Amino acid sequence: MTDDYLTSIEAWRRRMDERLREPYGWLALGGLFWLRPGTNRVGSDREAEVQLPAHASSPSLGVIDVDGPRAVLHVTSADQVQVEGLPVVDIELLPDVDPSPTYVNVGEVRMVLIRRGDRLGVRLWDPRRPERTSFPGRRWYPVDPAWRLAASFHAHTPLLSLRVPSVLGEVNVEHSVGRVSFLIAGESHALEALPEETGELFLIFADPTNQDVTYPSGRFLYTDPPEAGQVIVDFNRAYSPPCAYTTYATCPLPPGENRLSVPIPAGEIYPRSSAPQGEAR
Predict the structure, then answer these.
(1) Residues 6 or more apart from 91 whose CB is under 8 A from it?
(2) From CA 195, how far away is CA 198, in angstroms rounded?
(3) φ, ψ (nearest 5 deg) of residue 160
């Protein structure tokens, strides 16, 4: 193993921790509230459908009216509510799947509408959450260059439809751009790849280490864009999904095609004591 390779992986792992701890990173998530058709109350009142921290909001900030796929926020209090730095009173909320979602700030707290299937919800970040600053860091297998694998990329024409389950119990149809094939101990294995706008490949996979060492629901891994039908699959960069650290994430799970029969003792490990506490509303 070269010093440059070890240094690059260690630096990447430090950045992964920094991203978790960011003021609006995954560890700052403070709520996920599913909206019902009609009027949904917003505020720090414990009976509100969208409950905000008391340090950010009055008991009754306003309401979100849901009509089919549309959600409109109406502010009825004197709370300082802003979108892109400008105060708002009434605004239609564009969801996270839109190219320009509406991020609403109430003091330090940030909210965004999310759409999952036919459901609408509000995801909330609170930078004051102690979990954000007390997080001790991810844990990893030692870096092993043997798990940096040269792989072949076989593009799908047309794209291959995949049934990708989620922690919400839903199954979404995603489209694989191609199959990534590699050898482990002389045996061929493959993963279906989901596309990223950057050209990178997104691999959601499971392997037998999920039973006792790594995150039970599988791990995530990105690769650089393939070149001339080749790509590097570096399992030293495999990591636990956001659901490993918060109950307010809506992570996809590995499709059946991406369940490997061979253990992958590389990348992030997951002590069972790290499981997030509580349940998403």
Answers:
(1) 72, 73, 83, 102, 104
(2) 8
(3) -90, 130
187-237 pLDDT, tens digit each? 999 999 999 999 999 999 999 999 999 999 999 999 999 999 999 999 999
Is residue 252 over pLDDT 70? yes
What is the rounded CA–CA span in Å between residue 166 and residue 254?
Answer: 9
- How far is the C-alpha of 111 from the C-alpha of 81, rounded, in Å? 11
Is 188 strand, coil or helix? strand
Residue that is written with structure tokens 């954000």 in the block: 132
Pairing of strands 201-205, 219-223: antiparallel
| Alpha carbon distance 107, 271 (integer Å) | 35
Q: What is the percentage of the chain residues whose pLDDT exceeds 70? A: 97
Q: Cβ of 227: how many Cβ atoms within 10 Å?
A: 10
Identify the band that residue 3 occupies on the pLDDT scale cut at 50, 70 and 90. Answer: confident
As separate numbers, helices (DSSP H) first and strands (DSSP E) second, the chain gives 2, 19
Does the pTM of the predicted model rise above 0.85? yes
Residue pair 41/49 in contact (Cβ under 8 Å)? The answer is yes
Q: What letter represents residue 30's amino acid?
A: G
Cβ-based neighbour number of residue 212 at 10 Å:
10
